[in-house]
Specification:
This protein folds into two domains: 148 residues, Response regulator (Rossmann fold); 141 residues, Response regulator (Rossmann fold), CATH 3.40.50. Helix content is 43%, strand content 20%. The protein is built from twelve helices and 13 strands.
Length: 332
Amino acid sequence: MKRLVNFVVVCMVVLAVFAAPTVAAAAQEMHKVQIGILQFAPHASLDNCYEGILEGLSKKGFVDGETATIDFVNGMGEIETNNLAAAGFVSKKYDMIIAIATPSAVAAYAAARDAGIPVVFSAVSDPVAAGLVKALDFPDTGATGTSDALNFEGQLKMIRAFVPEAKTIGVLYTTSEANSVSQLEKLTELAKDFDFEVKAVGITDASEVALGAAQLVAEKVDVMNNLTDNNVVNNFSVVTNATDPAGIPIFGSEIEQVAQYGCVAAESLDYVALGVTTGEMAGDILKGEPVETMPVVIVKDSKPVYNADVMAKFGIALPSEYAEAADVAGAR
Protein backbone atom coordinates (compact mmCIF):
# COMPACT_ATOMS: atom_id res chain seq x y z
CA MET A 1 0.00 0.00 0.00
CA LYS A 2 2.86 2.33 0.89
CA ARG A 3 4.47 1.68 -2.50
CA LEU A 4 1.19 2.52 -4.21
CA VAL A 5 0.91 5.81 -2.32
CA ASN A 6 4.50 6.72 -3.22
CA PHE A 7 3.83 5.93 -6.87
CA VAL A 8 0.76 8.14 -6.90
CA VAL A 9 2.69 11.01 -5.29
CA VAL A 10 5.49 10.68 -7.86
CA CYS A 11 2.97 10.71 -10.70
CA MET A 12 1.34 13.84 -9.30
CA VAL A 13 4.69 15.62 -9.04
CA VAL A 14 5.61 14.66 -12.60
CA LEU A 15 2.26 15.86 -13.90
CA ALA A 16 2.64 19.11 -11.98
CA VAL A 17 6.10 19.72 -13.43
CA PHE A 18 4.97 19.15 -17.00
CA ALA A 19 1.71 21.01 -16.53
CA ALA A 20 3.34 24.02 -14.86
CA PRO A 21 4.54 25.72 -18.05
CA THR A 22 1.15 25.26 -19.65
CA VAL A 23 -0.66 26.74 -16.64
CA ALA A 24 1.86 29.59 -16.41
CA ALA A 25 1.52 30.29 -20.13
CA ALA A 26 -2.25 30.31 -19.84
CA ALA A 27 -2.09 32.68 -16.88
CA GLN A 28 0.25 34.98 -18.76
CA GLU A 29 -2.06 34.95 -21.76
CA MET A 30 -5.00 35.83 -19.54
CA HIS A 31 -3.16 38.86 -18.12
CA LYS A 32 -2.09 40.40 -21.43
CA VAL A 33 -3.51 43.89 -21.75
CA GLN A 34 -5.69 44.43 -24.79
CA ILE A 35 -5.15 47.68 -26.68
CA GLY A 36 -7.09 48.94 -29.66
CA ILE A 37 -5.25 51.43 -31.89
CA LEU A 38 -7.38 53.46 -34.28
CA GLN A 39 -5.71 55.53 -37.02
CA PHE A 40 -7.88 57.91 -39.01
CA ALA A 41 -6.30 57.52 -42.44
CA PRO A 42 -3.35 55.90 -44.23
CA HIS A 43 -0.98 58.81 -44.75
CA ALA A 44 2.68 59.12 -43.87
CA SER A 45 2.59 61.42 -40.83
CA LEU A 46 -0.06 59.29 -39.10
CA ASP A 47 1.87 56.14 -40.06
CA ASN A 48 4.86 57.68 -38.29
CA CYS A 49 2.73 58.28 -35.20
CA TYR A 50 1.73 54.62 -35.15
CA GLU A 51 5.36 53.53 -35.46
CA GLY A 52 6.29 55.77 -32.54
CA ILE A 53 3.37 54.58 -30.40
CA LEU A 54 4.51 50.96 -30.68
CA GLU A 55 8.02 52.05 -29.68
CA GLY A 56 6.71 54.02 -26.71
CA LEU A 57 4.55 51.13 -25.50
CA SER A 58 7.52 48.79 -25.81
CA LYS A 59 9.64 51.11 -23.66
CA LYS A 60 7.03 50.75 -20.94
CA GLY A 61 6.98 46.95 -21.25
CA PHE A 62 3.95 46.45 -23.49
CA VAL A 63 4.99 44.46 -26.56
CA ASP A 64 2.44 43.09 -29.01
CA GLY A 65 2.23 39.30 -28.82
CA GLU A 66 4.24 39.14 -25.62
CA THR A 67 2.84 41.32 -22.86
CA ALA A 68 0.03 42.91 -24.83
CA THR A 69 -2.44 42.18 -27.59
CA ILE A 70 -2.68 45.12 -29.98
CA ASP A 71 -5.56 45.39 -32.44
CA PHE A 72 -4.84 47.99 -35.12
CA VAL A 73 -7.54 49.43 -37.37
CA ASN A 74 -7.03 52.05 -40.08
CA GLY A 75 -10.21 54.04 -40.59
CA MET A 76 -9.25 54.84 -44.21
CA GLY A 77 -10.37 58.44 -43.78
CA GLU A 78 -14.02 57.44 -43.31
CA ILE A 79 -15.82 58.74 -40.22
CA GLU A 80 -18.27 55.84 -40.15
CA THR A 81 -15.44 53.30 -40.34
CA ASN A 82 -13.75 55.00 -37.38
CA ASN A 83 -17.00 55.02 -35.40
CA LEU A 84 -17.58 51.31 -36.04
CA ALA A 85 -14.00 50.39 -35.11
CA ALA A 86 -14.19 52.35 -31.86
CA ALA A 87 -17.50 50.70 -30.97
CA GLY A 88 -15.91 47.32 -31.70
CA PHE A 89 -13.03 47.98 -29.31
CA VAL A 90 -15.50 48.90 -26.59
CA SER A 91 -17.72 45.84 -27.16
CA LYS A 92 -14.63 43.64 -26.76
CA LYS A 93 -13.91 45.38 -23.45
CA TYR A 94 -10.36 46.39 -24.37
CA ASP A 95 -8.22 47.90 -21.63
CA MET A 96 -7.40 51.02 -23.65
CA ILE A 97 -7.97 52.73 -26.97
CA ILE A 98 -5.19 54.77 -28.58
CA ALA A 99 -6.43 57.10 -31.31
CA ILE A 100 -4.31 58.79 -33.98
CA ALA A 101 -5.66 62.13 -35.30
CA THR A 102 -8.62 64.20 -34.15
CA PRO A 103 -11.50 62.39 -35.94
CA SER A 104 -10.35 59.02 -34.56
CA ALA A 105 -9.92 60.47 -31.08
CA VAL A 106 -13.42 61.93 -31.12
CA ALA A 107 -14.86 58.60 -32.30
CA ALA A 108 -12.91 56.66 -29.66
CA TYR A 109 -13.88 58.95 -26.80
CA ALA A 110 -17.56 58.99 -27.78
CA ALA A 111 -17.59 55.17 -27.77
CA ALA A 112 -15.46 54.62 -24.65
CA ARG A 113 -16.61 57.42 -22.36
CA ASP A 114 -19.50 55.59 -20.68
CA ALA A 115 -17.62 52.28 -20.63
CA GLY A 116 -14.81 53.71 -18.51
CA ILE A 117 -12.13 52.71 -21.04
CA PRO A 118 -9.26 55.24 -21.14
CA VAL A 119 -8.49 56.91 -24.47
CA VAL A 120 -4.99 58.17 -25.28
CA PHE A 121 -4.80 60.34 -28.38
CA SER A 122 -1.95 61.35 -30.66
CA ALA A 123 -1.63 64.22 -33.14
CA VAL A 124 -4.67 66.15 -31.92
CA SER A 125 -3.94 69.83 -32.41
CA ASP A 126 -6.69 71.24 -30.18
CA PRO A 127 -8.04 68.60 -27.77
CA VAL A 128 -10.03 71.19 -25.80
CA ALA A 129 -11.90 72.41 -28.89
CA ALA A 130 -12.45 68.78 -29.91
CA GLY A 131 -14.18 68.12 -26.57
CA LEU A 132 -11.66 65.48 -25.49
CA VAL A 133 -10.37 67.26 -22.37
CA LYS A 134 -11.56 70.12 -20.20
CA ALA A 135 -8.09 71.64 -19.90
CA LEU A 136 -4.63 70.73 -21.15
CA ASP A 137 -3.02 70.64 -17.72
CA PHE A 138 -5.92 68.80 -16.04
CA PRO A 139 -8.00 66.81 -18.58
CA ASP A 140 -10.65 65.69 -16.02
CA THR A 141 -12.15 63.25 -18.56
CA GLY A 142 -11.35 59.74 -19.71
CA ALA A 143 -8.90 60.99 -22.32
CA THR A 144 -5.43 62.52 -22.58
CA GLY A 145 -2.54 62.38 -25.03
CA THR A 146 -0.31 64.49 -27.25
CA SER A 147 -0.93 67.62 -29.26
CA ASP A 148 0.94 68.57 -32.43
CA ALA A 149 1.14 72.34 -32.04
CA LEU A 150 2.42 73.73 -35.32
CA ASN A 151 5.12 76.42 -35.31
CA PHE A 152 3.18 78.98 -37.34
CA GLU A 153 5.59 81.80 -36.61
CA GLY A 154 8.47 79.72 -37.99
CA GLN A 155 6.33 78.66 -40.94
CA LEU A 156 5.38 82.21 -41.88
CA LYS A 157 8.99 83.33 -41.52
CA MET A 158 9.94 80.50 -43.89
CA ILE A 159 7.34 81.43 -46.51
CA ARG A 160 8.44 85.07 -46.42
CA ALA A 161 12.08 84.04 -46.91
CA PHE A 162 11.42 81.52 -49.70
CA VAL A 163 8.88 83.64 -51.62
CA PRO A 164 9.67 87.28 -50.63
CA GLU A 165 7.16 88.81 -53.02
CA ALA A 166 4.19 86.73 -51.85
CA LYS A 167 1.16 88.61 -50.56
CA THR A 168 -1.56 85.96 -50.23
CA ILE A 169 -1.53 82.50 -48.65
CA GLY A 170 -4.24 80.02 -49.59
CA VAL A 171 -5.46 77.46 -47.06
CA LEU A 172 -7.75 74.50 -47.67
CA TYR A 173 -9.36 73.10 -44.54
CA THR A 174 -12.17 70.84 -43.34
CA THR A 175 -14.87 72.80 -41.53
CA SER A 176 -15.78 69.87 -39.25
CA GLU A 177 -12.23 69.22 -38.05
CA ALA A 178 -11.77 71.21 -34.84
CA ASN A 179 -7.99 71.10 -35.20
CA SER A 180 -8.12 72.63 -38.69
CA VAL A 181 -10.45 75.42 -37.60
CA SER A 182 -8.26 76.39 -34.64
CA GLN A 183 -5.07 76.14 -36.72
CA LEU A 184 -6.55 78.41 -39.36
CA GLU A 185 -7.47 81.01 -36.73
CA LYS A 186 -3.93 81.04 -35.34
CA LEU A 187 -2.33 81.20 -38.80
CA THR A 188 -4.62 84.03 -39.92
CA GLU A 189 -3.88 86.11 -36.85
CA LEU A 190 -0.10 85.64 -37.04
CA ALA A 191 0.00 86.22 -40.81
CA LYS A 192 -0.66 89.92 -40.27
CA ASP A 193 2.71 90.26 -38.55
CA PHE A 194 4.41 89.03 -41.74
CA ASP A 195 2.30 91.17 -44.10
CA PHE A 196 0.33 88.22 -45.48
CA GLU A 197 -3.37 87.91 -46.25
CA VAL A 198 -4.84 84.43 -45.73
CA LYS A 199 -7.52 83.26 -48.13
CA ALA A 200 -9.24 80.15 -46.82
CA VAL A 201 -11.63 77.73 -48.48
CA GLY A 202 -13.60 75.32 -46.31
CA ILE A 203 -14.64 71.85 -47.40
CA THR A 204 -16.89 69.29 -45.72
CA ASP A 205 -15.29 66.04 -46.88
CA ALA A 206 -12.73 64.47 -49.22
CA SER A 207 -15.00 64.74 -52.24
CA GLU A 208 -14.66 68.55 -52.14
CA VAL A 209 -10.84 68.71 -52.07
CA ALA A 210 -10.52 69.15 -55.86
CA LEU A 211 -13.15 71.88 -55.98
CA GLY A 212 -11.59 73.70 -53.02
CA ALA A 213 -8.11 73.60 -54.57
CA ALA A 214 -9.50 74.89 -57.87
CA GLN A 215 -11.17 77.79 -56.05
CA LEU A 216 -7.88 78.84 -54.43
CA VAL A 217 -6.17 78.67 -57.82
CA ALA A 218 -8.93 80.84 -59.29
CA GLU A 219 -8.39 83.38 -56.52
CA LYS A 220 -4.74 83.59 -57.65
CA VAL A 221 -3.14 83.01 -54.25
CA ASP A 222 0.64 83.36 -54.33
CA VAL A 223 1.38 80.29 -52.21
CA MET A 224 -0.54 77.69 -50.24
CA ASN A 225 0.09 76.55 -46.70
CA ASN A 226 -1.10 73.12 -45.71
CA LEU A 227 -2.25 72.34 -42.19
CA THR A 228 -2.47 68.89 -40.62
CA ASP A 229 -5.99 68.60 -42.03
CA ASN A 230 -6.62 64.89 -42.56
CA ASN A 231 -8.96 65.17 -45.55
CA VAL A 232 -6.50 67.39 -47.40
CA VAL A 233 -3.37 65.40 -46.56
CA ASN A 234 -5.06 62.13 -47.45
CA ASN A 235 -5.89 63.53 -50.90
CA PHE A 236 -2.84 65.66 -51.45
CA SER A 237 -2.21 64.64 -55.07
CA VAL A 238 -5.61 66.16 -55.91
CA VAL A 239 -4.39 69.48 -54.52
CA THR A 240 -1.06 69.46 -56.38
CA ASN A 241 -2.84 68.50 -59.61
CA ALA A 242 -4.47 71.93 -59.39
CA THR A 243 -1.65 74.04 -57.93
CA ASP A 244 1.39 72.73 -59.85
CA PRO A 245 0.16 73.78 -63.34
CA ALA A 246 -0.75 77.18 -61.89
CA GLY A 247 2.76 77.63 -60.50
CA ILE A 248 1.58 77.88 -56.90
CA PRO A 249 4.07 76.38 -54.40
CA ILE A 250 2.74 74.67 -51.28
CA PHE A 251 4.38 74.80 -47.86
CA GLY A 252 3.64 71.78 -45.67
CA SER A 253 3.27 71.18 -41.97
CA GLU A 254 5.64 68.23 -41.56
CA ILE A 255 8.50 66.36 -43.23
CA GLU A 256 6.48 63.73 -45.11
CA GLN A 257 4.52 66.39 -46.97
CA VAL A 258 7.85 67.78 -48.19
CA ALA A 259 9.61 64.47 -48.85
CA GLN A 260 6.71 62.65 -50.50
CA TYR A 261 3.78 64.87 -51.38
CA GLY A 262 5.28 67.78 -53.33
CA CYS A 263 5.54 70.58 -50.77
CA VAL A 264 8.41 73.05 -51.09
CA ALA A 265 9.38 73.23 -47.43
CA ALA A 266 8.05 73.04 -43.88
CA GLU A 267 8.82 73.94 -40.30
CA SER A 268 8.39 70.29 -39.43
CA LEU A 269 7.39 68.38 -36.31
CA ASP A 270 8.74 64.88 -35.67
CA TYR A 271 5.69 62.62 -35.74
CA VAL A 272 7.60 59.48 -34.75
CA ALA A 273 8.74 61.27 -31.59
CA LEU A 274 5.17 62.45 -31.04
CA GLY A 275 4.04 58.83 -31.21
CA VAL A 276 6.74 57.66 -28.80
CA THR A 277 5.55 60.18 -26.21
CA THR A 278 1.97 59.01 -26.75
CA GLY A 279 2.94 55.36 -26.30
CA GLU A 280 4.84 56.11 -23.11
CA MET A 281 1.85 57.98 -21.68
CA ALA A 282 -0.39 55.03 -22.56
CA GLY A 283 2.02 52.67 -20.83
CA ASP A 284 1.99 54.74 -17.65
CA ILE A 285 -1.82 54.71 -17.61
CA LEU A 286 -1.88 50.94 -18.12
CA LYS A 287 0.43 50.69 -15.11
CA GLY A 288 -2.02 52.59 -12.95
CA GLU A 289 -1.57 56.33 -13.44
CA PRO A 290 -4.98 58.06 -13.68
CA VAL A 291 -5.91 59.31 -17.12
CA GLU A 292 -8.03 62.10 -15.59
CA THR A 293 -5.04 63.93 -14.12
CA MET A 294 -2.34 63.24 -16.72
CA PRO A 295 -1.65 66.53 -18.57
CA VAL A 296 -1.75 66.70 -22.34
CA VAL A 297 1.79 66.91 -23.75
CA ILE A 298 2.21 69.61 -26.39
CA VAL A 299 5.04 68.88 -28.81
CA LYS A 300 6.36 72.17 -30.18
CA ASP A 301 9.93 71.48 -31.28
CA SER A 302 10.30 71.83 -35.04
CA LYS A 303 13.04 71.94 -37.63
CA PRO A 304 13.10 73.39 -41.16
CA VAL A 305 13.20 70.98 -44.09
CA TYR A 306 13.00 71.57 -47.83
CA ASN A 307 12.84 69.67 -51.11
CA ALA A 308 15.38 70.94 -53.62
CA ASP A 309 13.67 69.14 -56.51
CA VAL A 310 10.33 70.82 -55.83
CA MET A 311 12.01 74.17 -55.31
CA ALA A 312 13.70 73.89 -58.69
CA LYS A 313 10.33 73.20 -60.33
CA PHE A 314 9.04 76.52 -59.03
CA GLY A 315 12.28 78.43 -59.55
CA ILE A 316 12.78 79.04 -55.83
CA ALA A 317 16.30 79.53 -54.50
CA LEU A 318 17.31 78.41 -51.02
CA PRO A 319 17.52 81.47 -48.74
CA SER A 320 20.88 81.87 -47.02
CA GLU A 321 19.33 81.69 -43.55
CA TYR A 322 18.17 78.14 -44.36
CA ALA A 323 21.52 76.88 -45.58
CA GLU A 324 21.72 74.44 -42.65
CA ALA A 325 18.20 73.06 -43.17
CA ALA A 326 17.81 69.45 -44.33
CA ASP A 327 17.09 68.67 -47.99
CA VAL A 328 14.66 65.73 -47.94
CA ALA A 329 14.32 65.31 -51.70
CA GLY A 330 14.31 61.58 -52.38
CA ALA A 331 14.49 60.80 -48.65
CA ARG A 332 11.40 58.57 -48.73
